[in-house]
Amino acid sequence: MTGRRVIVVGTGLIGTSIALAARGRGAEVLLADRDPGALELAVELGAGDPLPAGAPDRRADVAVLAVPPAAVAVTLLDAQKRGLAAVYTDVASVKALPLEQAAALGCDLASFVGGHPLAGSERSGPSAARADLFLGRPWALCPPPAAAPEAVEAVAALARACGATPVEVEAAEHDRAVALVSHAPHVVSAAVAARLTGADDVALGLSGQGVRDVTRIAASDPRLWIGILSANSAPVADVLEAVATDLAVAASLLRDGSEEAAGHVADLLLRGNAGRSRIPGKHGGEAPAYATVQVVVPDRPGELAMIFQAVGIAQVNIEDVTIEHSPGRPLGLLEISVVPEEAERLAAELRARGWSVPG
Ligand SMILES: NC(=O)C1=CN([C@@H]2O[C@H](COP(=O)(O)OP(=O)(O)OC[C@H]3O[C@@H](n4cnc5c(N)ncnc54)[C@H](O)[C@@H]3O)[C@@H](O)[C@H]2O)C=CC1
Ligand SMILES: O=C(O)C(=O)Cc1ccc(O)cc1
């Protein structure tokens, strides 16, 4: 992207991540946010320079509107009136409604290509941004029929520069798809997590990785998510009704308690296995098969740093890392994902240095 100028309006998690990635690929990046604190932090993180008010000295190649779904159309209209860029895109999690709103406001749809990177996190704001957020992820492109082919190519090039794979899909089809793979799972996660508000300390103290996995996205910003769900309400409701039916049937089978009923519950679990196995890995194929090395971590200052240092000395690359740590316990469990050929050697190295490495 060297020599290209990219403008990012909305320097939260997604906008700042795109800005960092584009900058890393040599683009000049200008930033704007209605929240001066979010803008200042994004600039401090090295994501770009503040966009001066008014008309720019030079039009950008692409302007990315990384604002909540309900703000996309007005932000697009404002950006087009200012002549900020040759091509405009957004990143909203819903595609059909913002496009309808943009058309109703009279935005120029030849220079607009809706976009949605399928990567993110339960955290918000520039502090959670990462340049590598989009690596290996799909990035949906939903050009309106009026979009110019050069505009589609410019947005696809931005997605590729961020390390993602552009996938062209019609807006309504996109919205039905993400209702299934993102929006309904979000509500289900929130519903499970909401049960915990009344949980006592004994139950919470017994929390393992399963409940953490199922509820991770329930920690997301409710203001952003109510906007996403409301803008995709019918497709999300369809999926939730189907999930609710499965849950109601499972509950009544469990109350029944017979062996036959247990067999039907097992059917749901087997369907769950089958559905889960269909989720592609990051690169669209099989999930990468990393081996995990578990290390028991004493709850002492500097312990994690020493383990990571030992991994570095062993010349092993960490592919991923998770820590399971229950409050009030003196030990945590660190899981280091590495390429399978390195796992044995790393385990031996860490044991030799005094850490407990189960298995
Ligand atoms: N959070 C996630 O994991 C993902 C979010 N998205 C989409 O990305 C968009 C942004 O989400 P996040 O970065 O997570 O939110 P965020 O809350 O981290 O950032 C949004 C930023 O937009 C700013 N903003 C809001 N209205 C504005 C306006 N009218 N003009 C200028 N700035 C404005 C806010 O001040 C904030 O800094 C949303 O449309 C969301 O649906 C897409 C993929 C993943
Ligand atoms: O945190 C996660 O795993 C996510 O799935 C984040 C996410 C949130 C919203 C999107 O539109 C796309 C991705």
From TrEMBL:
Q: Name one GO molecular function term.
A: prephenate dehydrogenase (NAD+) activity
Query: What pathway is this protein a component of?
Result: Amino-acid biosynthesis; L-tyrosine biosynthesis; (4-hydroxyphenyl)pyruvate from prephenate (NAD(+) route): step 1/1
Q: Which UniProt key words apply to this protein?
A: Amino-acid biosynthesis, Aromatic amino acid biosynthesis, NAD, Oxidoreductase, Tyrosine biosynthesis
Q: What EC designation does it have?
A: 1.3.1.12
Which Pfam families does the entry mention? PDH_C (PF20463), PDH_N (PF02153)
Sequence ranges assigned to domain Prephenate/arogenate dehydrogenase in this UniProt record: 4-287
Which reactions fall under this protein's catalytic activity?
A: prephenate + NAD(+) = 3-(4-hydroxyphenyl)pyruvate + CO2 + NADH
Q: Which family does it belong to?
A: Belongs to the prephenate/arogenate dehydrogenase family.
Protein name, entry field: Prephenate dehydrogenase
